[in-house]
Q: What sequence folds into this?
């Protein structure tokens, strides 16, 4: 059982839809992350929130919009996505101290298919 | 840019054979982590190496961090079918907080 919960586990959406992915961590960590995992590609870091403040945005298209209302919750709002955005979206959390980041605890992921 | 290369991409072994995956960076890493992702699952943390030349063992798994802190390896002795999955290294380049994942090595073990 993971301390990081993601919903939904599977999502199919059209290119004009608006949907959101939700992540909740029960580990008391101070940093949360969104990663994208596509076939045959390394895990791509999308966003990092540390103490609810966005500290990294890896040139992600504006059709992906993150939100971190508190240290336990993280959202990824999706709008007018493209078929190439179909992937497994993984949320993770960790306990960070300055430049040192501990191990990442991943959720089970949200499998997104864009038609 | 900061990259971490991992080889091989894929390996198929017979149960009982050994397996090794290698991770290489062009720049010095402050530390390196290893994760395992089972088919259909999510990455799970295995270990972190911090010191130059560090070697750590977990049962049949041996992890090494190179002397120059630019490479690392994971060796599995006498593989079992439960070892099936993709193994990722993730390195943090010195002076940067961002963790960069390697491309992963997919391991298949036949009984």
A:
């Amino acid at each position: 059982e993971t301390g990081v919960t993601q919903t939904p586990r599977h999502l199919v959406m059209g290119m004009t839809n608006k949907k959101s992915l939700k992540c909740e961590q029960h580990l008391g960590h101070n940093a949360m992350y969104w990663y994208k995992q596509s076939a045959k590609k390394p895990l791509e870091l999308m966003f990092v929130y540390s103490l609810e403040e966005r500290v990294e945005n890896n040139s992600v298209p504006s059709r992906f919009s993150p939100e971190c209302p508190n240290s336990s919750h993280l959202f990824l709002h999706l709008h007018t996505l493209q078929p190439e955005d179909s992937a497994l979206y993984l949320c993770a959390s960790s306990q960070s101290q300055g430049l040192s980041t501990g191990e990442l605890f991943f959720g089970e992921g949200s499998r997104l298919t864009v038609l | 840019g900061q990259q971490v290369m991992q080889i091989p991409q894929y390996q198929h072994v017979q149960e009982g054979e050994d397996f090794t995956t290698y991770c290489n960076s062009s720049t010095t890493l402050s530390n390196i982590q290893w994760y395992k992702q089972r088919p259909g699952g999510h990455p799970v943390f295995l270990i972190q190496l911090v010191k130059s030349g560090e070697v750590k063992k977990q049962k049949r798994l041996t992890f090494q961090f190179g002397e120059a802190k630019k490479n690392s390896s994971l060796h599995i002795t006498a593989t079992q079918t439960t070892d099936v999955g993709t193994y990722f290294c993730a390195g943090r380049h010195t002076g940067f907080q961002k963790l960069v994942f390697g491309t992963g090595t997919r391991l298949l073990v036949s009984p």
